[in-house]
Amino acid sequence: MAEHDGAAEKAESVISTEQVDVESTAEDIDAEDIDAEDDASHDTKRRVPKWISTIPRPIAVGVAIIVALLGLGGWLGFRVHQDNQAQAQRNLYVQVARQTAINLTTIDYTEVDADIKRVLDSATGAFHDEFQNRSQPFVDVVKKVQSKSEGTISEAGLLSYTKDQAQVLVAVAVKTSMAAAPPDQEPRRWRMRLTVDKTGDSAKVSNVEFVP
Prior knowledge:
Layout: H1 2-54, H2 56-105, E1 107-108, H3 112-121, H4 125-145, E2 148-161, E3 165-177, E4 188-199, E5 202-210
Antiparallel strand pairs: 1-2, 2-3, 3-4, 4-5
Helix pairs in contact: 3-4
């Protein structure tokens, strides 16, 4: 009987030990799973920000390129606009000088008053005042000899210019006729250096010099 009781106690002890081992093993497995999940979670957390941070980089590079191209395009457009404005200003200086040279050398005694007014309209400063003061004696002589002259521009070029003024060289050929004299067989060739001043959106001549 005692042996039977001892065997039973031994069996219970073995079962209890096995239960403890099973529970311990289960706890170990659960702990390992939790640790593995934690490690996986931490690893995922480490990888996700890095993965996200790599996405905007190509986008940022693309935006930077677009901004750079827009800036370059704007700068080039501004330079082109400036060049166009400068070229238009140079053309204006030369055009005004050419027209004034024609006005000065194209005088018809039948329309001399209108011819003089045309010169004064394209003049400014000291040149305007001087020409106006001398215009009446000139008109009287032209009418008296019944003079006609016609100027033709041979060449015209810009010598120098600034934002507000330019020096223009003009070569002009002039044919002249008078009632009491035969007409010139060959035109007279003159060269003029005209100073052109910018006046608002237009330009006018402030000085005229005849040069060899």
